[in-house]
Design goal:
Blueprint (H helix, E strand, L loop, with lengths): L2 E7 L11 H10 L25 H14 L3 H15 L4 E7 L2 H7 L4 H4 L2 E6 L11 E7 L3 H6 L5 E3 L10 H14 L6 H6 L3 E2 L2
Parallel strand pairs: 1-2, 2-3, 3-4, 4-5
Antiparallel strand pairs: 4-6
């Protein structure tokens, strides 16, 4: 298949790769057929469904732990192989990296040839650096102080807090524009002028 889209976020429930309701709703609103989406979150292997009643404090702590674990060498050794296998059939992979998902992507240390096929739409990015990929688009909320601590320069700032990106209309609008750009669909002149996402130098 020419391209696929996939979520890459930390795990709010340890080991759970099921997509949350917000992620599933965003998939439906994106306009992409579900066949164009990987059905699970990182590392793209099936698990139990996501439990929607997860307490916010517990989910936040689980994400912090996932962020810290990803900085250890064993993280790449364990998770890079299944990610490479999941991405192998596709010429281009559009990744929706939420929060610390950008850090996880960097710490996977994927081969350069694979990273050259990745296009990253990062919302509320929390990472020490931006991975080298074919292109990236960083979206940050005006009131997202966590993301602003890590990234002072982004492509777009919108009206969103750290937990509200997938429900924000601007996120969907920007994702659709980015998607049309990176998968080769011709854009209108207005869209070309308003899209400022960039290729990684």
């Amino acid at each position: 298949m020419e391209f696929v889209a996939a979520f890459l976020t930390g795990h709010s429930v340890p080991g759970c790769t099921g997509l949350s309701k917000a992620q599933r709703d965003f998939q439906l609103r994106s306009g992409l057929p579900l066949a164009r989406w990987l059905p699970h979150n990182f590392p793209y292997q099936a698990s139990a469904p996501y439990p929607e009643q997860t307490p916010l404090l517990a989910a936040s702590w689980s994400n912090v732990r996932h962020y810290l674990r990803s900085r250890r060498p064993e993280f790449a050794r364990e998770f890079a192989p299944p990610v490479e296998a999941a991405f192998a059939p596709f010429a281009r992979i559009v990744i929706l990296a939420g929060s610390c998902g950008l850090e996880l992507l960097h710490n996977l240390q994927l081969p350069a040839a694979l990273r050259a096929r990745l296009h990253v739409f990062a919302y509320g990015p929390v990472s020490r650096r931006v991975p080298e990929t074919a292109s990236h688009c960083l979206v940050q909320g005006h009131s997202d102080w966590l993301s602003r601590w890590f990234h002072r320069r982004v492509d777009h700032r919108i009206a969103a807090a750290h937990m509200g990106y997938l429900e924000a209309p601007e996120t969907l609008t920007l994702f659709r524009k980015y998607l049309r750009e990176v998968v080769g669909v011709r854009m209108t002149e207005d869209e070309q002028m308003s899209t400022t996402c960039r290729s990684t130098p």
